């Protein structure tokens, strides 16, 4: 059992501990005098009075005196070397109303020169300059996205580095790397075990993926997704990374040369997210719709025969949504059997339907691309060219 009391002085490592008093005396059991090693060696007086915790009842007479003598004999001194580790401590706090919150604090692992086992010490018990010697290299590297420095710090086996170390706002080095778009730093931190889904405590409660998305860092978005980042986690306002980047896009003016690069970057980030958020499939037809505004959804039928699904309006091609809203009916095309040129240099194709006997001429944009390509392939094989008047001939040849 170790205990110390603060001995305030400049550049000294200080400790905050319970006021452990001898059962029958107001004299502190433990007293420490320490100063930062770069100025002069500092020492910690350690005592381990095991009998103290065996009996908390005040002793009298010779037994009490004997205990005091034992404490004096167990005095030991050791010089502090450096901070060699850091950890975040989360403790439940119970309120009078029965609610429970979490208190978050930081502790540092202190290495002693005299061989004592390294000890964990609360951050508020350590002088700022001592903490800075350990913390500054890490946060400097993180906030500059210095991959070489981060890699070197993590590789130093003599000092433990927590890749999930948090700043006062609960942000980690990965949040900064994501915001700066450093794919290399993201990879280094992820390989070191950093939590790619860490939510910051301040700000908007963002994950690194939210940060990379909101800043328009498509490369960082891709790197985070490859490292296992979850694109469905919501931030403090209930937004997924994709919803966040689209919100930022809406707020970024179009047609403004100064904002052009910004929009391109945001669109790139959105595209990377869409690759993993959406399972792309070809819609056969829109069957039904529900909801209004941003909550509008459509029930779609997939071309590959999968089960019908409700899909958000923003995920569907604009022409599909427009056709449904305008009341256009869908049919299942079997083949293209003819082609003709129409006014304006455009083309129309004669479509044979699965559920209709009558073939109809349809604008090129309304006809399935694969059916058109198959028709054109056969057209080339047969060596035939079809005009508006000759469409029936081609229909006979292909149909």
UniProtKB/TrEMBL annotation:
UniProt signal peptide: none
Residue stretches making up the Chromo domain: 331-387
Entries under Gene3D superfamilies matching the protein: 2.40.50.40, Ankyrin repeat-containing domain
ANK repeat start-end pairs: 169-201, 204-236
SUPFAM superfamilies: Ankyrin repeat, Chromo domain-like
Region (Disordered) residue spans: 375-399
InterPro entries: Ankyrin_rpt (IPR002110), Ankyrin_rpt-contain_sf (IPR036770), Chromo-like_dom_sf (IPR016197), Chromo/chromo_shadow_dom (IPR000953), Chromo_domain (IPR023780), CPSRP43_chromodomain_3 (IPR030300), Multifunctional_regulatory (IPR050745)
Keywords linked to the UniProt accession: ANK repeat, Repeat
Domain of life of the source: Eukaryota
PANTHER family linked to this entry: ANKYRIN REPEAT AND SOCS BOX PROTEIN 2 (PTHR24189:SF50), MYOTROPHIN (PTHR24189)
Name of the featured protein: Chromo domain-containing protein
